[in-house]
Amino acid sequence: MASRKGGIDYSKWDKIDFGSDDDSDESNDERPRVTRLDEPSRVTRTRDGTVLVEPTKAKGGVHSAVARVGKAGDGGNEGSKVGLSVADTSGGAEPSATDQRHTKNGGRFTDAKTGFDVLWSQDREEVIVSVVFDSSLMPSKNVCVTVVGALPFADRKSAAGGGTEMDERGVGGRSRGFLVVTARTTDGEKIVLLQGDLPHFVHLAEDEEDGECEWEIEDPGWMGEGVVKRLARVTLHKAAPMHGVTVWWDQPLVHCPKIDVASIKGRPQGSMENAGQGDGKSQQQAMKEAWDEAHRMFREKVKARKKEPVHFPDKHD
Q: How far apart, in whole angstroms, are the C-alpha atoms of residue 196 and residue 214?
């Protein structure tokens, strides 16, 4: 349509579409799309534009953790009627040099009964056992730790014998103590993180009662950014048969892998430092040698004492 000279040509406005954006094609690739994720996930975009969504909890393998506490000697988390999918704890990063304290004079392994990752360390006085768990599935406040059969503080230097009967747990035989670490999930199910008999005697702290122990929840920075795994750290106080004897543990629980205590750095090689190595006849021999050594040291100490005259007052004084 021709416009009038000097006027405005309005014909171009006839071609404008005043329709709503809601009427546009739903398949338009330029339109933003929103995807809601059901769980914490990692989202990446490849060069060809493909979007990959990977749940962060799916790292590593998965195992079924039981929603019950088993008795000593049973399969731990096996045989549960109700299972829970838990991320494999062995897939975490290795600890840095500054965090080797978790495995000093000990080690790291995956517990054969429960499937959870365990780290343990020791010095002359204590053994620290740490269990890795997912705090997004099992909140830290729901963790519970119990030690049964610990000796009173007064008996910490007189631990001897084959242990005490543990019939209250429904298990025959004798034990030097029993450790149980459990947690409840967000759904209220009870999970066994670690449980088993102790290889050596432990003693209570001065202000503790039977069943109590020192433990804490720690956030290990070396597990990786964004990882929700935590450590349940249990401190066990070593008991010894007498003063001057150091008991070096070769395993944190009797069903766990053993280490060679002879390889512990900085440990004197005398018999007084070998009292906790091995089991059966070898351990009895080491204990006998430690006992004999303690008596020898005592006799030398007595022999070295100087005689001092004692003056009694005269009866006439």
A: 17
Q: What are the structure tokens assigned to 21, written together?
A: 């954006």
Please check the confidence at residue 214 and state whether its pLDDT lies above 70: yes
Q: Which residue has the higher pLDDT, 16 or 253?
A: 253
173 contacts 166 by C-beta, under 8 angstroms: yes
Geometric angle at alpha carbon 159, from 171 and 274, rounded to 5°: 105
First to last CA, the chain: 148
> Residues 6 or more apart from 119 whose CB is under 8 A from it?
95, 102, 103, 106, 107, 108, 129, 130, 132, 231
Cα–Cα distance, 66 to 69 (Å, whole number): 8
pLDDT tens column, 146-166 = 999 999 998 888 877 655 554
83 token code pair: 């299972």
- Would you state the CATH architecture of domain 58-256? Sandwich (2.60)
Nearest to 253 by CA among 195, 171, 202, 166: 195
CB atoms within 10 A of CB 34: 4
Q: Express as a percent the part of the chain with pLDDT over 70.
A: 50
Q: Are 132 and 119 in contact (CB under 8 A)?
A: yes
pTM flag (> 0.70): no
- DSSP 8-state code for residue 151: B
- Rg over alpha carbons for the chain, rounded to the nearest Å, is 33
Structure confidence by residue, pLDDT tens digits, 47-96: 666 666 666 543 333 333 333 333 333 445 543 333 333 333 344 455 55
Q: What is the pLDDT, as a whole number, of residue 62?
A: 30
Alpha carbon distances (Å) from 11 to 3, 5, 8, 16, 262: 9, 14, 9, 10, 97
Domain ranges of the chain: 58-256
Q: Which of 154, 155, 160, 174 is nearest to 287 (CA)?
A: 160
